[in-house]
Design goal:
- By secondary structure, the protein is an alpha+beta fold.
- It folds into two domains: 7-21 and 191-438, Creatine Amidinohydrolase (Alpha-Beta Complex); 33-187, 3-Layer(aba) Sandwich (Creatine Amidinohydrolase, Chain A, domain 1), CATH 3.40.350.
- Helix content is 31%, strand content 20%.
- The chain has a six-stranded mixed β-sheet with strand order 5-4-3-2-6-7.
- A hairpin with a 2-residue loop joins strand 11 and strand 12.
- The longest helix is centred in the first third of the chain and has 22 residues, at 33-54.
- It starts with 6 loop residues before the first strand and ends with a strand.
């Protein structure tokens, strides 16, 4: 019976297309450079000015240079400048003013991007005199810069470049400098409808891969290792022409038997009686998914998992459902985590040692509200940011319990990708409702 494909799949749409059938990516049209510039431009025009006004920021300055490039500089359409560059966005009354000041040999990218009204090319005089003049002419009441304690992507301004900016603004403007973190979160963290469409396609492709990986076709209990499954996943990614959402060594993260949390796949053998989890995502055209699924390897003669595992599973399902219900515009990330965590602890299980979820987008852990507990040293103030329409999240509470025979904790985990709309949350992934069962014979 070892070569018989026997798997009870939790929903039919996740069954991997068979031989000769098409993958969801076969008809997908890859983004061209013009598409990327169009998306960048539309996002800046749609989201930046309202965010600046909501946070009383008249001028937003991003300073960047080679080797210590601000992480959002590419999003602002300037490529990878070598010399010092200043990207200045201003509230000009009825419009957003956009100026890039760069070395003459760095201006090709901003000119081609179409994002800027004005591109100033400096030579021997350097950036400083241009920066001083632009600030003096505009006379901003407040200047936002990329500094943040809690959001790394909004913390791209180095100490030396902050001092450089203070030299440029002088004593008259020094006390007007503050963090532009809310602008970065509102602009980068929100997705346009066409970006959501890309994420939706990427999520379907992720589900295809996982459904095939967690099947009897791929897993022979007692023989297949975590590394075998990881190699299968990598092979499918290559065939689809996609890359990993996070560091390749740990994507996918596969646990069989005892839980190790985030970890690289090992040569551990997948055995009957094991709970197996896959935490995995792909990067499609610069958009990252994050999905987690759980399977149980049936022992000989078993038709369903033991009662303790079924109870863990049902608790996890309820936790995800209650968290999803809380993902309303205006609710905080902490509201979502509280709902998820309460279901699990009320059922008598230990609380999960992480957040219930996080934003996703251009990277796996995108800017925006953290769906987490009030652990100030761990998550800071991000858990109290409010959810807003057009944000996308991975929702991932988990249930752990001591194993009766393995000498540690076993874990069941579900991770679903969710879009926030004006009306409330919407599933982008197809929620796993049933534990995947893989026969051992």
């Amino acid at each position: 019976m070892k070569n018989v494909w026997t798997i009870l799949v939790y929903f039919s749409v996740m069954i991997m297309p068979g031989l000769g059938q098409r993958s969801v990516l076969d008809s997908y049209k890859r983004l061209a450079d013009a598409d990327r510039n169009s998306i960048r431009k539309e996002k800046i025009e749609r989201f930046v000015l309202p965010a600046m006004r909501a946070n009383n920021i008249d001028m937003w300055i991003t300073l960047t240079r080679e080797y210590v490039q601000d992480p959002i500089a590419r999003d602002l359409g300037v490529g990878a400048p070598v010399a010092r560059a200043a990207l200045i966005l201003t509230d000009d009354g009825n419009r957003l003013g956009r100026t890039a000041v760069m070395a003459s040999y760095d201006i090709d990218a901003p000119l081609k991007s179409g994002l800027y009204d004005t591109v100033i090319a400096y030579r021997s005089e350097g950036l400083l005199p241009h920066l001083k003049k632009l600030i003096a002419d505009r006379n901003p009441r407040s200047i936002g810069v990329n500094t943040s304690k809690d959001t790394p992507l909004a913390d791209g301004l180095t100490v030396s470049m902050l001092n450089y900016l203070r030299e440029a603004v002088g004593n008259d403007y020094g006390d007007r400098i503050g963090s532009a973190e809310p602008v970065v979160v509102a602009w980068r963290g929100k997705k346009l409808p066409r970006e959501v469409d890309i994420l939706r396609t990427a999520i379907k492709a992720t589900e295809e891969i996982i459904a095939k990986a967690l099947s009897r076709e791929t897993i022979t209990p007692g023989e297949t290792t975590e590394l075998d499954v990881a190699r299968f996943v990598k092979d499918m990614m290559t065939k689809m022409g996609v890359t990993e959402s996070w560091e390749p060594s740990g994507c996918p993260s596969i646990n069989t038997g005892l839980s190790r949390g985030h970890s690289e796949p090992t040569d551990a053998i997948i055995e009957p009686g094991h709970v197996v989890t896959i935490d995995f995502g792909i990067n499609l055209d610069g958009y990252c998914t994050d999905i987690q699924r759980t399977a149980y390897i049936l022992k000989a003669g078993e038709k369903e998992p033991p009662d303790d595992i079924r109870r863990m599973w049902k608790t996890n399902i309820r936790s995800v459902e209650d968290g999803f219900a809380q993902m309303q515009p205006g609710h905080t990330g902490n509201d979502v985590d509280k709902a998820c965590r309460k279901i699990i602890t009320d059922a008598g299980f230990q609380e999960y040692p992480h957040a219930a979820g996080h934003p996703i987008g251009y990277i796996t852990h995108e800017v925006g509200p953290m769906l987490g507990p009030d652990w100030p040293e761990r998550y800071g103030k991000k858990v109290f940011l409010k959810l807003e329409p057009n944000q996308v999240f991975a929702l991932e509470p988990a249930v752990s319990s001591p194993s009766k025979g393995l000498g540690g904790d076993i874990r069941v985990g579900i991770e679903e990708d969710v879009l926030i709309t004006e009306q409330g949350p919407a599933w982008l992934s197809t929620p796993q409702k049933e534990l995947i069962l893989i026969a051992s014979e």
